[in-house]
Amino acid sequence: MSKEKDQSNPVDRARAYYNSEDADTFYHTVWGGEDLHIGIYESDDDTIFDASRRTVERIAGKIRNPGKEMRVLDLGAGYGGSMRYLARHYGCRAVALNLSEVENERNRRMNKEQGLEELIEVVDGSFEKLDFKDNTFNVVWSQDSFLHSAEREHVLTEAARVLKPGGDFVFTDPMKADDCPEEVLQPILDRLQLEDLGSPAFYRSAGETHGLRLLEFEELQDQLPRHYARGLEELEQREEELRKKISADYLDRMKTGLRHWVEGGRKGRLTWGIFHFSK
Q: What is the 3-state secondary structure (H, E, C) of the chain?
């Protein structure tokens, strides 16, 4: 992958980032190790792992006909904790699609260690072009991944294409609030090297345009700054230990980035929640 390509395509930049040793070590060490996504916190004492697992449970609870017969596709699966949860609880088959080969190798190892490798297929790839036939999956799932795409509407088109009629499309994404002026998010956009973020209004409109019926948007705006503040707290508490494994430059930039997310969330400029569509 060329440097020029990395600079021009958000998905390629995300792939290079999540493949880096610094990022892999940070997320595996600090972010809970199983789930790389925003958590749902019930108390300030919740660990990142417990809060993140609560998110998985909340999303899974929205699937209308869970069971052994369902087939699930996870778009941007990270370390695959969500699909292990579904496979373990329902005995279903899952495909964990993810662009980072480094994360995917961890995913495969954990699947094997937990005796779930026969139920979960880990696929190297981007959710912007899905190599699956139409109407393949009962459930399409994603957590906090679509922000990395510059073609989010196309991603929803692909998700709708591979989803079976009557199936569930459930996802979360860090978003700008519908009434947020674009320019105030520039520090976050610069950090992610993105042009913009999605919004609740965008996802509602794009989903309906492409044949998806919105069943629910459970907005959980307060959880976004709470999660990033918890991550920042964990980083700062363990910084001396982490600096032995992760570059100082990465940790300094991570602290700056987390503070931007916390500030944006607390000022109501950013939001987050669970979308549930049906085809």
A: CCHHHHHHCHHHHHHHHHHCHHHHHHHHHHCCCCCCCCCCCCCCCCCHHHHHHHHHHHHHCCCCCCCCCCEEEEECCCCCHHHHHHHHHHCCEEEEEECCHHHHHHHHHHHHHCCCCCCEEEEECCCCCCCCCCCCEEEEEEECCHHHCCCHHHHHHHHHHHEEEEEEEEEECCEECCCCCHHHHHHHHHHHCCCCCCCHHHHHHHHHHCCCEEEEEEECCCHHHHHHHHHHHHHHHCHHHHCCCCCHHHHHHHHHHHHHHHHHHHCCCEECEEEEEEC
Task: Give residue 6's pLDDT.
Answer: 42
Domains detected in the chain: 3-278 (3.40.50.150)
How far apart are alpha carbons 69 and 139 in whole angstroms?
11
> Residue type at 218?
E
- What Å distances lie between residue 73 and 131, 158, 169, 256, CA to CA? 12, 12, 10, 33
R_g of the chain, CA atoms, integer Å:
18
Q: How far apart are CA 94 and CA 145, in angstroms?
A: 17
pLDDT in tens, 196-205: 999 999 999 9
Q: Which two tokens stand for residue 80?
A: 């695959």
The token pair that represents 132 in the structure block: 């699956």
Blockwise average pLDDT, block size 10, the chain, 279 residues: 49 87 91 89 93 97 96 97 98 97 96 97 94 97 94 96 98 97 86 88 96 97 97 95 95 94 96 98
